[in-house]
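A reminder before we start the practical. When you read a complex entry, don't treat the lines as separate problems. The point of joint prediction is that each chain is placed relative to the others, so the output describes one connected object in space. Small molecules and nucleic acid strands, if listed, are placed in the same frame. In the example below there are three entries. Take a minute to note the order of the lines before looking further.
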Amino acid sequence: MGWTPVTKAAGTAGTAEGSTPLNAFDNALLAAGIGNINLVRISSILPPGVQLVPLPRIKPGAIVPTAYAAQTSEVPGEVVAAAVGWARPEDPGKNGVIMEFHDKATREEAERMIVEMLGEAFRVRGERIRDMRVFAVEHRVERTGCAVAAVTLLAPDDLG
Amino acid sequence: MGWTPVTKAAGTAGTAEGSTPLNAFDNALLAAGIGNINLVRISSILPPGVQLVPLPRIKPGAIVPTAYAAQTSEVPGEVVAAAVGWARPEDPGKNGVIMEFHDKATREEAERMIVEMLGEAFRVRGERIRDMRVFAVEHRVERTGCAVAAVTLLAPDDLG
Amino acid sequence: MGWTPVTKAAGTAGTAEGSTPLNAFDNALLAAGIGNINLVRISSILPPGVQLVPLPRIKPGAIVPTAYAAQTSEVPGEVVAAAVGWARPEDPGKNGVIMEFHDKATREEAERMIVEMLGEAFRVRGERIRDMRVFAVEHRVERTGCAVAAVTLLAPDDLG
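Here is the predicted structure of the whole assembly.
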């Protein structure tokens, strides 16, 4: 039966330091409000009819299909960025698209890349963008840092 | 309850150029007919009793367990290939296996690797291959190109 | 409805040689007892209320959310390790955490890393660890080898 019905989607982003790269990632997820759920990576479509909402409280341990980008670095002083963005077409019966970006980059560069990638994704689909939202974050590494950005796809049972 | 019941599986492959690596990947998925669904990567078993079908129409935004390979390159002139293949055992109560390959390689090389890998996967399981199918594709990069190949596992609710 | 209800979790680890890196990974999964199921990678939370069990028989082809680490090497003589570990908090209503590690390393180094990472994960959450378990394995590469360690999250329908 698959993972349906996804009814909501929510974006978020966060940054953190940690004593290992995996802890920095875990800490960045906690900073983004999604540190106590199980992310399952998807490539990367916003289903039609999904409601875009602020990140709700998600049940601990819930298994949540998520488009996400993460950049970890152990180079002090380096600036890392992660961004995700969704865009929806004018026809509400058609799907939207989610794009991800992570690199040694600034938040502005990451945001610009997302907008460009979403633009191309809609051009090739022959659709016009009705609305769009980007979630981006940057982090200057102290010792071991991570920037993460995510769009989660949520089912009613995941909430609460 | 998990993702059951998967009842069908379908393979496909495609190639494309794009203005970024992620767009090239997105465009290659569109060329392969799976650009408007959410792929979730699996490692990589064909459940027993699954029907092998030509790629059907899948609901936009469906979350689909998929074994896939993708090779992106930004080196003009480079040839990249991606391939997947499934093989089934003589005993229909036992699972099949899916193998993936991606590299700077030709389609023939990719196909040969899949056949070899499936052969070993069956030898170590003590099974003989009843039937096998490989989906492979190659692409000569113009600027930023991607080759992708995939076997999707489908539930009735994903179709339509 | 997502992937709920996950009711059990089980850890395992294994190593193997193979004639390709993907076959070595496949063979290591077989050695670990999870070679005939579909792993879907999760990042990496132990849901509250889940029962920790020895690895049960899982239906062939089942699609199983799994936190896993794998290290493959084609350098003869190299020692590779993979480890996963879970830890649960004192409050049974709160989620546990799973950490993964893979590298050119010994089993002892991998185990120590898991314990340190779980310790930090609990410190940042403001929780104390009630109990913990690490699954780790090392492998000296002959030609193409792989070490894998995994914690699977299981629903009743996955068993049998």
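Discuss with your neighbour: The mean pLDDT of chain B is 96. What might explain this?
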